[in-house]
User: Fold this.
Amino acid sequence: MSEFVSLPLALAAEQFAKLPGVGIKTAQRLAYFMLNLPEAEVRDFAENIIKARQSAKLCKYCQNFTERDICGLCADENRRRDQICVVESPKDVSAFERAGGYEGLYHVLHGLLSPMDGVTAEDIKIKELLARLGDVKEVIMATNPTVEGEATAMYIGRLIKPMGIKVTRLAYGLPAGSALEFADDVTLVKAFENRNEI
Amino acid sequence: MSEFVSLPLALAAEQFAKLPGVGIKTAQRLAYFMLNLPEAEVRDFAENIIKARQSAKLCKYCQNFTERDICGLCADENRRRDQICVVESPKDVSAFERAGGYEGLYHVLHGLLSPMDGVTAEDIKIKELLARLGDVKEVIMATNPTVEGEATAMYIGRLIKPMGIKVTRLAYGLPAGSALEFADDVTLVKAFENRNEI
Assistant:
């Protein structure tokens, strides 16, 4: 947007355009929304984001974002300490907790191995995972079922198995509530291979 | 997201979820992006939004957002003063300026009449439009081709025509580069009715 049309709008839009998945049209829409809000609410919005960032530390065990040294999950006495579920990002922890049923601990890698993008084992929290395997009996690799997710699971599995720890991987199969006709070939083959007796 | 999963993430996500068109999943993704940025960049992002809001005033003539009393377009000596193009929002001014070809002034309504949503003539900048029609010979109603856009154009037209000022409306017709088979019935009928000699 050229400067003379509206400088405040351009300044705000420029900020929103920095966000992932936000194009120039959406950025303009968000900027317009912001300029229409009372100044106090805009200040509130912006300051809470700064506050969130300032308070965000990584849990010294699981590496999830937390405002303390040790996150609520790692500090929870009721969680099993012999299982660690390894995920790519904090939102995956939220997804598992929402689904419920898992009572062990987590480990957040903050990324996946991706040599194409220059992401190597040093760039994600693998070292920190290896350092906390003392009492662990099972490591559940719960990275996404993508090329990078698979590669990362394989890589970490190969590091951990020699330590005598069981390493498992989430099952491939049909998503609940879906239809066979919409499933892709890989999913169908995996679902067939991993069929269970009923 | 329950509190104990990650408080900083929840706080940031809560802010982004306030934005129009941003659901909880997108808000979490944006929050995660923010917490991964260096603190200085987050501060920059947030403070620029506050700054944009603080500097945003409405031009005393056209009501567009500007950081001055009179916006660049209204202050531009080279613009024709006898034409005013009336639009719903600042992004429409940007769209026309990007397209080029128009040399008159604008007027931003900041909304459209919508009795269903409780938006009446007092809630949008109609009074301000009527106050600046002194030397104006033509008012071009360039609101969106929607029910509210049409109603607003009709309403304002009826106020202005008795003042002896020409009121025009953007043409309906086929969008450039489109195909007949994809046009809706109303558009096709209007395009047919308003056919031009070549």
Chain B touches chain A through 59 residues (CB under 8 Å). Strands of chain B lie at 57-58, 65-66, 83-87, 105-108, 138-141, 166-169. Chain B has two domains: 7-55, 78-169. Chain B has eight helices and six strands.
